[in-house]
Design goal:
The structure is a single chain. The chain has one domain. 21% of the residues lie in helices and 33% in strands. It is built from 6 helices and 11 strands. The strands form 3 sheets. Strands 6-7-4-3-9-10 form a 6-stranded mixed sheet, with helices on both faces. It is globular and about 45 Å long. The protein binds zinc ion.
């Protein structure tokens, strides 16, 4: 099933629909992207990168790699296949970004990754689209076992089969209830009929187009 997800992502990413928008980046072009530091830059520097660029902006903390509390969510449709891809700082999920230092922290991470693996339940679509969960892929933060790592991102891709995918017009999430550290999800909806953008928040956890 992983290949299925990858195929959809590759197709859509290759079409450049995501890279055209500032809020996301394609896997193929991130090296050249202005946002190239989004996921990977933290791993390029071994020392004190997490202190130089920190500053307050409103309530959310920005770092060179990402913003705490802010996730990126992309809905991508290819025929009957619908994928939701979430990338979010691990801080927003389990509250810290260093390698786990005790059993309790290891347990929190394990539990959260399991929750994400069963994460189709965090999302719902309008019933007319007739979507059923198919598969999931959860990418652990690369620095999870590196004592020097910080500012880790977690990515999860959930795949649905939607018999009436052309009827898709609503997305709702309960992620904010499960993970109260998440403040906002910058959301891109990429349908064969067109693309839409928006924000999901605890107060407005639903998007229609
Ligand atoms: Zn961080």
């Amino acid at each position: 099933m992983k290949t299925q997800i990858t195929a959809i992502a590759a197709l859509l990413f290759a079409a450049n629909v995501i890279a055209a928008d500032h809020s996301h980046e394609s896997h193929s072009s991130h090296a050249e992207s202005a946002h190239a530091n989004h996921q990977h830059d933290a791993h390029d520097h071994d020392h004190d990168h997490d202190h130089d660029h920190d500053h307050h902006d409103g309530e959310m903390l920005h770092f060179e790699g990402h913003t705490h509390g802010l996730g990126e969510l992309a809905l991508m449709q290819d025929q009957q296949q619908v994928m939701l891809s979430l990338t979010i700082p691990s801080e927003s999920l389990w509250g810290f970004e260093h390698a786990p230092q005790n059993d309790e922290q290891r347990a929190v991470i394990d539990r959260t990754l399991k929750q994400l693996t069963a994460g189709h339940r965090f999302f719902s679509f309008n019933a007319a689209a007739a979507c059923t969960p198919v598969s999931v892929e959860v990418l652990k933060p690369e620095g999870l076992n590196n004592p020097d790592a910080s500012h880790m991102d977690v990515t999860a891709n959930w795949l649905w089969q939607c018999q009436q995918a052309e009827q898709l017009q609503q997305l709702q999430t309960s992620l904010f209830k499960h993970y109260p550290r998440i403040e906002k999800l910058q959301t891109q909806v990429l349908l064969q009929s067109g693309s839409h953008g928006g924000e999901l928040t605890a107060k407005q956890p639903q998007l229609e187009w």
